[in-house]
Request: fold
Amino acid sequence: MTREDSKPLDRNSRVEGSDEPNAHSGSGPFARVTSHDVARLAGVSQSAVSRAFSPGASVSPKTLEKVMQVADSLGYRPNVLARSLITGRSRIIGMVVAYLGNSFYSMALERISHVLQAKGYHVLVFMASNAAEELDRVVNALLDYQVDGIIAASVSMSNSLSDRCSAAGIPLVLFNRHQGKRGPTAITSDNYDGAKRIARFMAYSGCRRIAHIAGWSESSTGFDREAGFRDGLVEAGLELHDRIDGRWNRNIAAAAARSIFSAPAGRPDGVFVGNDHMAFAVMDVIRYELGLRVPEDVSVVGFDDAPQAGWKAYDLTTYRQPIDEMVDLTVNILLARIENSHSETTQFAIPGHLVVRRSAKIPGSGNHD
Reply:
């Protein structure tokens, strides 16, 4: 029997002689309960209380049960900020996102939070545009909060900002963005190859006048997807019929669809939209404003496989990003870099796969002219 297990639990015991103010020592109704109070009432050492609230620490099940029972009865929670002053770790990860309207990023944020929490970390979310001054403000705030690491999703961090994080000793990982070989560590899906597969799929299904409503061309994802799509069309012996930058925005994408389908060159028989978030708006315009049939008149293909893509209202053919693999790799690399600040910069492009639904003509099915 260990020292921590040697004293019986008495939930009615009075805490006496505490060296810190607390609700049980008569110092007022708003006094803070401390780990010393929990240790005294549970009959264990203060270090046992600390281990009980430290993920992965060694503590016996019996001691853990005692400590948690007393902590619950006293309303005790450990002071994470105070602990960070001792350990040098806040166990907080800063996450920077430009927008959450695209459900892919909402889903990614949720999964990243769950994975980090399971490893004893918490997420502090900052919203930011891709404007340089806005990102600079957010990075300053993250450095002020002494976060252990940063994940930047849907934002284009400049190399100078990533250098500032490195100089401050804070690892940075880009999620679904990259800044090239000289940029910070980045995890993406294989955007280039995914879009190339979409081009081949649409060409083999019989589409001949294929337009592209692109993502923001200044983002790595938008650039890579457009490059892969153009190369895929060339390999199939086709040229891009029309192209407009949708800037990852539903309203801009809807306006782009109206423009493309009213152009003098004639309407397309297929449209690849840079992500599902925009594709839903494009489909609404095609069907409800222009009165065209999907896919009989126009094939529509997206990218991401957001949850709404599987709804019967859209049934969208799309390229599924391997979000679970992307999240796991992002978190594992970030935590490894927190432990070893000298880890090398790496770039990963993880393959996804095309999910064929009813918004696009299917090669060999006879459902095209």
